[in-house]
Amino acid sequence: MKRLTKKDVQNVYNRCLSLVRRKPAEFVVFKKLKICGWCLYEDDTVVIDHRKDMLRTAYHECIHYLFPDWSETQVIYAESRVVNGVSILDNIRFLKHLAAKAYKSALQKDLQIRRARRKKKLKNEARNNRRHR
Ligand SMILES: [Zn+2]
Question: What's the rounded Cα separation, in Å, for the pair 46 and 48?
Fold first, then answer.
């Protein structure tokens, strides 16, 4: 396993932050899972169980995304080094950007569901109106 220096830790943090900042809202999804999180490379998404250790899980999945060749042990080590090694302000900055993306992502999903329901309701009403004539 590759040991990370203080400089490496800050670099991993900076890359996690810039990843969350530059990705579209859909990149971050909160969902109830049996595990803490998932990194879905194919969907370009990280899924995080918001009921569990959100900050650590978010770093963990971002590190998987950024360093796909790292072992699980290496990722767990890096996640721990980042969460403990950067300042509280840096941790909160990351959480702020993560939460903003997750909020936008959840809002978009909610709007899609509402639109689909409204469309279905209008369709049913149109069908019922035809029947009553
Ligand atoms: Zn993992």
Answer: 6
